[in-house]
Amino acid sequence: MPRFVVEADGGSRGNPGPAGYGAVVLDPATGETLAERAEFIGVATNNVAEYKGLIAGLTAARELAPDATVLVRMDSKLVVEQMSGRWKIKHPDMKPLAARAAKILPRAQVTYEWIPRERNKHADRLANEAMDAGKRGEQWEPSRSTAFAAAPPAGPPGDAAKGAAAVRAAMASGGGTGTRAAAAAGTGADTLFGATDAPSGDAQARAAEAAAVRAASAVARDTDTLFGAAEAPAEAPAEAPAGADGTGPRPAAGSDGGHATRTAAGTGTAAGTGTGTGWGPDMGAPATFVLLRHGETALTPQKRFSGSGGTDPELSPAGRRQAAAVAEALAARGTVQAVVSSPLRRCRETAQAVADRLGLPVAVEEGLRETDFGAWEGLTFAEVRERFPDDLQAWLDSPKAAPTGGGESFTAVTRRVSAARDRLLSAHAGRTVLLVTHVTPVKTLVRLALGAPPESLFKMELSAASLSAVAYYADGNASVRLLNDTSHLR
Fold first, then answer.
1. What are the respective helix, strand and coil percentages of the chain, to the nearest 5?
2. Preceding omega of 16 cis (within 30 degrees of 0)
3. pLDDT (tens digit per residue) in 95-130
């Protein structure tokens, strides 16, 4: 069953006065905005505008998936308590609106949560955009909205967005409002589909202070331990990677041959190196995912799409040599405690070579499989461009577009990989785990850890048998430790 978060708000400049509402539907797994709604509604009260925002948000969620489970988050205590059934609805203007909202989706599919106003900024900005449009004698237009760009990031646990927002807030102020903002950013997704009470008074201040310290600590702490073993910190490259501006043709993000838009091909770049001393209390050992792209197949040097819907090729002789080389490199480090593989043959063969060298079993995680590229399987980028130019362009332009013939969109892959990530984090807290997988899952895990947009998938190079690493801390922050290291192959 799909899950959505609806955030809604309404406002009136006069109460009653010129009023408008805003609502946004979010994917709780990725933080992606799925739908936005806003409207100027003429002269009305704040409460009427808030209820109309709720109705618009629930309607948008129903249009996306009528069977979805929805968490509604609003900063209106009145609407949340009334729709939750804890407060009676006495005002005659509210009763028909509440009844209308209650009929949009079955009651069992919707839960309500109050949030502070500072955590409802996306919907608040939409409502203000609608009121501004009304002042000009116009209606709100999605194409002119800047609410999404202005909204503070609030990704799910394990993503960097909320932690980064907390760090920015903590560094902008030595305390006070800065730490309160950090706490708001750092708890943005912690209560998805679970009811919690908002802290108040001294407890809220203490929580804010702790959130700021934890977030700042995640950035500055010991990022010199790439795979869980202490080492001297590596120097980060001074120059920006080639092709980082996105110029030039963009080949298949999940193709078996990587990308033409390259970032320091074949080099291992450690991200976020620091002093190792940290700025705050010890968060304990992180769960570290060492991300290994499988070795080459016959399709890899030909740069053909090779996903989970094709022929499931085996490793080529070159790929088997690469698997042996990475096995020796990981054995020398001696820090990998478990091996998990995609179900596809090329990954299982790579994983088995490493596991045999380390004396570990191989577990299979279905969520780590490559994108299903539909009718593009086995084709080169040029062949797809010639045969399916419109579909290819749509796929390059939007993460929601799927390859021709029923393949998977990047949005769908992100949901699947995020769910696999969360399962593995739950099963391997504090451990170093080798995940043997493919181009798109590795890039997706890195993208989510960085809080980067979907188009960043086209701006990362990932060579066959390369190593990357992401550490996940108990406070929800993530740290990218390594990207596309191929030093073991030279």
1. 40, 15, 45
2. yes
3. 999 999 999 999 999 999 999 988 899 999 999 999
Residues 211 and 119 sit within 8 Å (Cβ to Cβ): no
Backbone angles phi, psi at 111, to 5 degrees: -125, 160
- Taking alpha carbons only, the member of 398, 428, 390, 427 closest to residue 414 is 398
3-state secondary structure of 40: strand
SS3 assignment, position 443: helix
Query: Average pLDDT in the 147-155 region?
Result: 53
Token pair, residue 284, equals 């304990």
Would you give the end-to-end CA distance of the chain in angstroms?
A: 47
370 as an active site residue: the answer is yes
Who has greater pLDDT, 378 or 179? 378
Residue 396 makes CB contacts below 8 A (sequence gap 6+) with 250, 458
Which residue out of 365, 370, 377, 408 is catalytically annotated?
A: 370
DSSP class of 352: H
For 455-471, write each residue's pLDDT tens digit: 999 999 999 999 999 99
Q: Which structure tokens are listed for 288?
A: 């570290």
Rounded CA separation 26/33 (Å) = 5
Of these residues, 122, 259, 294, 438, which one is catalytic?
A: 294
**For residue range 233-270, what is the model confidence (pLDDT) as tens digits?**
333 333 333 333 333 333 334 444 433 332 333 334 33
Q: Is 488 a catalytic residue?
A: no
Please tell me the pTM assigned to this model. 0.52
> Is residue 110 classed as helix, strand or coil in its secondary structure?
strand
Burial 242-252 (b: 16+ CB within 10 A, else e): ebeeeeeebbb
3-state secondary structure of 419: helix
- DSSP label of 315: B
Main-chain phi, psi angles of 326, to 5 degrees: -70, -30
Question: pLDDT at position 476, please?
Answer: 80
